[in-house]
Amino acid sequence: MTKVRVMDHPLIQHKLGYIRDKHTSTKEFRELVDEVGMLMAYEVTRELSLEDVTVETPIGPTTAKRLSGKKICLVPILRAGLGMTEGIHKLIPSARVGHIGLYRDPETLEAVEYYAKFPSDIEERDILVIDPMLATGASAVEAITAIKKRGATKLTFICLIAAPEGVKALEEAHPDVDIYIGALDDSLDENSYIVPGLGDAGDRLFGTK
Binding residues for 5-phospho-alpha-D-ribose 1-diphosphate, per the UniProt record (predicted)? Predict the structure, then answer.
């Protein structure tokens, strides 16, 4: 059963306020998205399993903890997903990074895969799918479908801001995927932009607006 978790941590909410602000510069926007990605990853990884290991401190031997179980792979949805990936990678430096690119067919309006590159052992990894926005849900649904076709079975979706329509679409298509959200907004407008949202995340990250 899907778990939908909206982050209520004060630091995440504080930084999201600046991310939403249209006066925030491209540099500041990019830095803030990176920081929030890291903060969200801290919560997303809360349930990772640990194992005991013996280490030598400067004083003597002790039992410490190390991550155990499946390895992690980060998969940003191009291009906006790249903005959150570095922050998450800083927290989990041993994670591999795959990529998936999608474009929207102008006639069918469906998401179409144009690029995909993953680790060869993707079926053995916990996959964190990353995209700042979950609007209609079409890109997230298609990306996760494509990743599952490569053999992955344990996936989590992470985004800064979501619309209820996107959450519903993702839940219905992939009920086994947990969804972590920085903020759940009101709705979509007639152009499928999240309201109030933050505008186009990719344009604001890379200064192409």
Answer: 79, 104, 131-139, 200
